[in-house]
Structures are given as structure tokens and as C-alpha cells.
Amino acid sequence: MTKLVDRFLKYVKFDTQSDELTNLTPSTPGQMVFAKELEKELHAMGLSDISLDDNGYLFATLPANTDKAVPTIGFIAHMDTAPDMSGHDVKPRIVKYEGAPIVLSEEPRIVLDPAQFPEMNDYVGQEFIVTSGDTLLGADDKAGIAEILSAVEWLQEHPEVKHGKIRVGFNPDEEIGLGAHHFDVEKFGCDWAYTMDGGAVGELEYENFNAASAKITFKGLNVHPGAAKHKMLNSMRVALQFATMLPRWETPEHTEGYEGFYHLISMQGSVEQTTLSYIIRDHDRARFESRKREIEHLCRKINCEFPDCASCEIKDQYYNMREKIEPVMNIIEIAKQAMENAGVTPKVQPIRGGTDGAQLSFKNLPCPNIFAGGMNMHGRFEYVPIPSMEKAMNTIIEICKIVAE
């Protein structure tokens, strides 16, 4: 436990916030700084086949300690933290949660309150690692990295526990959807893998959204407002008209479970030109394709009223890994059994988002997702219960045991 926590507390102090605007891999220099520190740690642990490429992808091997023919499996976590909030100068601290609100900061007063986050009450009596209120924590996904390396170290210290060849992989830029883009699956060389990137204890996920981005551009005509009648075309007003044409209730704040949505993530504009950026999400592939067609249909409707005003660019981002996991459901059964062996009740559920594992599954590396323990990710109220991290570490160990058996 101490080594696991110490690792995590060390890792979160690296500023690894990713940035989708740089067009670099890794997208920020802090990720490579962290990768090089992890590389040193892997060498100190005595792992083999250690490689760190120019894009910030770090791989290593724990060799098998059995002569049996055992599948090679991998465990993967990402090094970056979300762009949503600063990851600079993270000041983690450990507090015991007894059911009362946790004051993160006195000035300004910032409180982690179970009235706002009732899931906290599932962990009464446990120690939390929390933020100082002005940064995120980074449990997404440095908890996953700490759990993987702590599990590997435990296996090294217990040679009586037999296991096959274990590969570990740490990658940049998951939070901006690029984590799997330069991931060399052939070099990683696994029969299958697990991302340690889920949330609450027990989460096991092999379904995720199909995902696309949509950028709709509206071109207007600016004329002096005093002489604008029948001449001006205000692109911002047209963009607002388009936005209201989409189904009102099919947005993130009104959907759950398997329900998909359209999500307006940014808008930039002037009279001359306005751009709306959306993400499109649905678990069902047919509904996903229908949503993309609806965006194109509404653009055509706008152009019927305002000729040549609207144009759209839609790009697929990732797909539901379920279609790649269902043929190899034994890897889900292994994870479920491992959780039970570790004293965890599996909670199989769809991801209302995506992971690197989704893209890796479509690169012929089946890769479901397992909990890492973090809660309220991507913001100042992020926390991780320490026992959840320990159970994640033990789940990894149990997976290795089961596969070897």
C-alpha cells in the first residue's frame, strides 16, 4: 500500500496536461519529461525490452516465470491529464473521509461535499487522496500507472506466483483522443490487454460510444447596420438557428446509459463567419450514422433558406469496441473472476465516453477497460479512495494468476 500511494503522490506532481492545438506528439513537453522518469523507474525495477520512442510511447516487459505456454497480456495507462483544468503544481493530500464535507481550500472556500457528490458515501471510513482545490488531481490516469507498476513489483517480489509474459504500456494524449494513434500494436506484442483507466471500484467496460466530431461553418455578409436591410446576413444568428434545430433533449445533460447525444463544445463567431463545433456520440452504430446524416440534413435546410451559407466537416473519432470484444468474451470473464478474487464486485457497464482501448481494439488488440479508482475526474473535486487503488492493483495480479493457470 505504501509503495502504491508513494508512487501515485510522486506521479501527480508531473504536469502532463495535453493540448489538442499543438499538433505535436506528445502534445506537450511535460508528458515526455514524465515518460523519461518512468523509463528510469522501469530500468531500476529490472524490467526488460524497455523502449521509449520519440512520440512518448513507453513499453516494457516482465518476463514469464513459468515454462507453460501462456498468452502474453498487457496493461496500459495514459500519462496525460485532461485539458479541462490545470495539472500544474498539484498538491495532493490524504484525508480520512468520515461522511462530512472535506474542505479543499479555505480561501477561496472550496469544499468536496457529499451533498453534491453522493458517491462519496460509498467510501465512508476510507482514506482519500484529494486536491488543494485549484487543480485537478491526475488520478485519471496516473492511478492506473501506479497500480500497474505496483502490481508488477509485487509479482517480482513473489516468484512463487506463476505468470506469463506481461507487457506494460504508457502512452500520451489519451485525453485529446490521440492516445492510440501512434501505439505500435505489433511491437507491443500482446494477445490482448486491459486499460486501467476506469473510475469507481468494480467498473469493467467493453462497450463505449461511437464518436465523431462535427464542425459547421456559417458564412455571413457584414454591412453597416444603418444600411443593412435586405443586405446583411449575420452568421451568428444563422448558427443559433441551426443549434435550435437539433433535438433539445438529446444533449449530455439530458441523457444517460445507452442514450446518445449531440454536444456543442465550442462556438466562435462574428457577423462574417461563425463556427459551431460538436461531438456526436451513440453506442448503437446505426443511430450513430443517423446522427451524422441529421447534421448534414440540417446544413442543407439552412442552405435552402440562406444559399451557400453553411458547410460541415464530420470526422469519425472512434467506434464501439463491443464488436471486437464479443468474439473474445473470455477476456471479460477473466477480468470478472480476477475482481471477485480481489474482493471486488464487478460492475459491467457501458462507457459514456471512450478509451484508448476502443481504438486499440480496432487495431487488433482487444482491450477492455478496468477501474483505476478515481472519482470526479477532470476537475478540482477529483479524488481517489486509497483502497480502490489497492483493489485495482490486486485485480491486475489476479488476472496474471488466472491467465497463467
Shape: globular
> Taking all residues together, what is the mean pLDDT?
97
Main beta sheet strand tally, sense and closure: 8 strands, mixed
Rg, nearest Å: 23 Å
Number of helices: 10
User: What topology, given as strand order, has the largest sheet?
Assistant: 1-2-8-3-9-16-10-15
**What share of the residues does DSSP label as strand, in percent?**
15-25%
End-to-end Cα distance, whole Å, is 26 Å
Low-confidence stretches: none
| Class per helix and strand makeup | alpha+beta
SSE order: HHEEEEEEEHEHEEEHEEHEHHEHEEH
Features:
single chain, four-stranded antiparallel β-sheet, 10 helices
Give a verbal description of the structure.
- By secondary structure, the protein is of the alpha+beta class.
- Helices cover 30% and strands 23% of the residues.
- The protein has ten helices and 17 strands.
- It has an eight-stranded mixed β-sheet, with helices on one face. The protein has a four-stranded antiparallel β-sheet with strand order 12-13-11-14. Strands 4-7-17 form a three-stranded antiparallel β-sheet.
- The longest helix is centred in the last third of the chain and has 21 residues, at 285-305.
- It is globular.
- The two termini are 26 Å apart.
- The mean pLDDT is 97.
Task: Lay out the secondary structure.
Layout: H1 2-11, H2 29-45, E1 48-52, E2 58-62, E3 73-78, E4 93-96, E5 102-105, E6 110-112, E7 127-130, H3 139-157, E8 166-171, H4 185-188, E9 192-198, E10 203-205, E11 210-219, H5 235-245, E12 261-269, E13 273-282, H6 285-305, E14 310-318, H7 322-325, H8 330-341, E15 347-348, H9 356-361, E16 369-371, E17 383-385, H10 386-404
Parallel strand pairs: 3-8, 3-9, 9-16, 10-15
Antiparallel strand pairs: 1-2, 2-8, 4-7, 5-6, 7-17, 10-16, 11-13, 11-14, 12-13
Helix pairs in contact: 1-3, 3-10, 8-10
